[in-house]
Amino acid sequence: MILVALALLIWLGAWWLNVQLAESAVVKTRAGRLLVPAIFGITILVVWELVVRGLEVPLVILPPPTQIVARMASEVPILWADFVQTFVKGALSGYVIGCAAAFGVAILADRFDFLKRGLLPVGNFIAALPIIGTAPILVMWFGFDWQSKAAVVVVMVFFPMLVNTVAGLQETTAMQRDLMRTYGAGYWASLTKLRLPAAMPFIFNGLKISTTLALIGAIVAEFFGSPIVGMGFRISTSVGQLALDMVWAEIVVAALAGSAFYGAVAMIEKGVTFWHPSQRG
Amino acid sequence: MRSVLPVLTVVVAIFGFWYLAVLPMNAHQAVLDAERAGVGVIPAEASARRDLSGFTLLARNFDVVTAGVWTQERPILPAPHQVAVELWDTTVEKKITSKRSLVFHGWITLSATLLGFAIGTGLGILLAVGIVHNRAMDLSVMPWAIASQTIPILAIAPMIIVVLNSVGLQGLVPKAIISAYLSFFPVVVGMVKGLRSPDAMQLDLLRTYNASKSETFWKLRLPASMPYLFASLKIGIAASLIGAIVGELPTGAVRGLGARMLTGSYYGQTIQIWSALLAAAIVAATLVGIIALIQRMTLKRMGLA
Prior knowledge:
The structure holds two protein chains of two kinds. Chain A is mainly alpha-helical. Chain A has two domains: 2-57; 72-279, MetI-like (MetI-like fold, Orthogonal Bundle). Chain A is built from eleven helices and no strands. Chain A has helices at residues 2-23, 30-54, 65-74, 76-111, 113-127, 135-142, 146-169, 174-182, 187-222, 231-240, 244-272. In chain A, helix 6 (135-142) packs across helix 7, helix 9 runs antiparallel to helix 11 and helix 10 packs antiparallel against helix 11. The radius of gyration of chain A is 24 Å and the shape is flat. In chain B, helix 4 packs across helix 5. The interface between A and B is large, with 64 and 59 residues.
């Protein structure tokens, strides 16, 4: 009970501290903006630890954070092998193939107005469907290894990417296109010098949405069958063995991989679309 | 109206491609069936055929393959009409209480989706209101809500199902919880953006009217947030359905659209997988369509559209 009371005290204390910080001048600085969410996150971890230990919650319901970290430290080789199998082989290769294919189709669709008017509503419609359901079919076609996971990822990222790229290519104004024409620019010159750069914010929006979808697709596809390695495989078998600390360890790895992937794409975006209003200031 | 013809063309092209793809995908099985029925095929030995691609087999046995691929029981790729027939059989022809009725399975999934969506949206809107009115909450929670969009939270689904199972919760509620947290974060992020969308001029105007905080909320912030809310509701309901379907996978559930896909993949019942997939697509399209309809009517009455 003492631990639970301590958890409550820490919670109230941290919240009071954050309220004080939020009203002070500290949050105007960059460090302050990072400090407040960091305090909140650490408080949740500490309270989680204390409540789980204080109430003696069984391991099969919720393991404390320290135990998850300990498990992560002791299982590095397995976690790394799962990461390589699911993220590098499955998600990343599917992401590259799917985004490249969608980009190509978008350029083609943009060239022919008829195709664009047909593909855009259909693509928007399909992007809202539960495409993850194709996983059992694709696992059946491409086998249990990473190829089938990559195929699921390709199907999942294709339509969001297609819709965003086509929308981006329409972004230029008539004035800008006229200017290119007065310069005597042909289709390719105006595509590479005007319309593709103008489409970049949209393309990167599609790329960023696709990062999360890629990881979800690769993990969920493993629930339908996989070799004995991979994050989705490890999650589903560890759940079966009630080794919840291992499940949480995989989830931490997935979260880190997801944020790092998103962050990397966002960094590239910052470099490419430095001129866009959302990237300035 | 201008886009009806292009859309139809694309849809027809997709179905045409699907029918064409059926030929090489199922060629091996079709040739095997024909051989067993005593029809001569090239090459005659099964071992020689194994290494050939579907296209080669199709080219060498064109008549046999084109005759045999449409009615197979377990095709690698079922033809659209086979899926349509299966859909018709399992929805209209079966009683909806039957375990083989897709309406029955669809309702299991749909009820979890709707319950989870209601919980997730309700909590999401509440949190967004808190974030907009409390600076400390904004600074502490909002970065985590945004960061959570980049992590594959769907991976937690199996654990939630099993943990809740061990404390005695089964069936609808665990799936609804997964649906709820998938729809929760899009709604929070969209709603915060919406509640903040009134500009300084409008907020100043209400201050000159001496409006209280709650009056500002009900008369300005909430109405202004509607377009944002509906945009996130559409994302949220699609995510909820995915959550409910994936929630059915890990425990080997026997009911629901996800369970239909899983059992179909265990027993190689491809037509069953495809019909469940199509049923899920129809449910998703209907749900998003209903929200789009409500959106159009609401925004029209508010004079925003």
